[in-house]
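Sample entry (200 residues):
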Amino acid sequence: MMKTILQKAALLITGVSFAAITHATVITVTVTNFSFSPASFTANVGDTVMWMWSAGTHTTTSLTVPAGAATWNNPMTSSSPMFNYVITQPGSYTYWCAIHKTAMEGSFTVSVAGVPNISNVVSDYVTVFPNPVSGVLNMHLKAGSDNEELIIADMQGREMIRQNPASTDNAFNVSTWPKGIYFYSLKRKEQTLNGKFEVQ
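Predicted structure, serialized as tokens:
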């Protein structure tokens, strides 16, 4: 009975953890003389950033974007008053007006809805390497348990792997997986440990 309850709870947590883009929103940034408003914000994968022209002659031009994300360079003028950018990758984004440069900058940080930003080492229990990976992903667990369940999913929530880890050292061939960010969720006892890695 207890095992059944825990399995149902695990499935519920999984559904929340890997809900990637079901609640996308539009974030409006006003472009006026020498400022983007808001100048910085947070967003989720699947959201749309909408720059709206208010005054002056400007651009919205990407400076830095995460791996796999598209760059952009769009005029913001009375004849080009709106530009939409759909976010596809988590991470940090910076941009500026290419005309006014350092006098007019903006930034935003993106995560995946329901999935916290976590480093490669989760609670000192899980280590994944190499990261980024193009061949074999290694996952080291500090201890093994028959009750553990590992789920690896892509950014759309599609499961790539669901299994009980065979041992403390596990290897997964990801060479045929599409490039991008993947998320893992390890359920052990009453804990759920989440993390991410990138396939290149």
